[in-house]
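This part of the workshop introduces the protein records we will be handling. Backbone structure tokens are a discrete shorthand for how the chain folds in space. Once this layout is familiar, the rest of the handout is easier to follow. The record below serves as our worked example for the rest of this section.
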Amino acid sequence: MAAKWIETITGSLEQKKQYRQYKARVEAMPAPYADVAKAVAEATGGEGVSR
């Protein structure tokens, strides 16, 4: 029960976990690929994760 109201205030914990994994993958990419991934995320309003 407590987790539900916390997620209501802070957002989905699963989405936060996926976002952190995405950011780690982008940081691990070679520079040209990471630059493109960051540019796409910026152009789409930070929504770089798509599954």
